[in-house]
Amino acid sequence: MLKATVRRQVTVPLRFSDGYVTTAQVMTFDGLTDKREHLLLGLGDWRRALTKSAAGGRAPLVRPHSECLTGDVFGSQRCDCGPQLREAAERITEQGGFLLYLRQEGRGIGLYAKLDAYALQDDGLDTYEANVALGRGEDERDYSPAAQMLLAVGADRIRLLSNNPDKAIQLDSLGIEVTQQIPTGVHVSAANVRYLRAKASHTSHTIELPLAE
Question: Which residues are catalytic?
Answer without folding.
Answer: 139, 141
